[in-house]
Amino acid sequence: MALLVASDDTFGPDADLIVLDRDGNKLLHRPRASYLSHSDGFLFIYPLVWNDNETVKVPVDGYKEGRSRGVLHIRLNREGASYETDPLLPAAAWRILAQQAPNVKETDIARFIAATGNASGLYAVLLANRDVWIVDILKGKALKAGAGYPLRWTKDKRLWLAANRSELPVYYSGL
Questions:
Q1: Which helix (H) or strand (E) holds 49?
Q2: 3-state secondary structure of 85
Q3: β-strand 55-61 against 26-36: which pairing, if any?
Q4: What is the Cβ-side half-sphere exposure of residue 45, based on CA atoms within 13 angstroms?
Q5: Which residues pair with 159 in a beta bridge?
Q6: Which of 63, 93, 94, 149 makes a 20 to 30 Å CA pair with 77?
Q7: pLDDT per residue over 15-51, tens digit each?
Q8: What is the pLDDT of residues 49-92, one digit of tens each?
Q9: Residue 170 pLDDT > 80, yes or no?
């Protein structure tokens, strides 16, 4: 089991990676393995993914070494880690979104999901404020779908969106 936990009592942007075996014995403790830029004191979910039995992928955003948003691949049996930048929204999709939402900056894009299929040109774009936009490159349009978290595209090009309402907030634990 792998956990990302706050590196200090202030709930700052750093997170330590702790890996436990089936019996709860600590296999690895890597201080400040992940860095997600946010205000101190704000409790933030740090998602992680196992690549294989020996490698865990942790997010970085605003990393101290000058890296932009991406992931670190940390091997349990090695000291270092390899860095991989997140893919960028295609330029054509960004131009369309910027025309429809002129106050949005590229750095506001938290995540995007491309619809699969023969170059569909459809993207669900999640912004930092939790607004979700659907961008259609082929039609040259962008539509605000609402607030929440985009889950996936269906085969018939419909977007599953976890809607966010104040009485039923959406929390996610993975990217």
A1: strand 49-50
A2: strand
A3: parallel
A4: 8
A5: 153
A6: 63
A7: 888 999 999 999 989 888 877 755 555 556 667 788 8
A8: 888 989 988 887 765 565 567 888 888 888 878 888 878 899 99
A9: no
Q: Sheet harboring 141-153: ordered strands across?
A: 109-114, 122-127, 131-136, 141-153, 159-163
Q: Name residue 64's amino acid.
A: K
Q: Which of 49, 24, 45 is nearest to 36 (CA)?
A: 45
Strands 70-75 and 49-50: unpaired
User: Residue 81's Cα: distance from chain center in Å?
Assistant: 19
Does the pTM of the predicted model rise above 0.70?
no
Separation in Å, CA 52 to CA 60, 68, 73, 133 = 19, 24, 10, 33
Question: Which of 169, 174, 173, 122 has its CA nearest to residue 148?
Answer: 169
The contacts of residue 162 (CB under 8 Å, 6+ apart) are 148, 149, 150, 151, 170, 172
Which two tokens mark 84? 């991989």
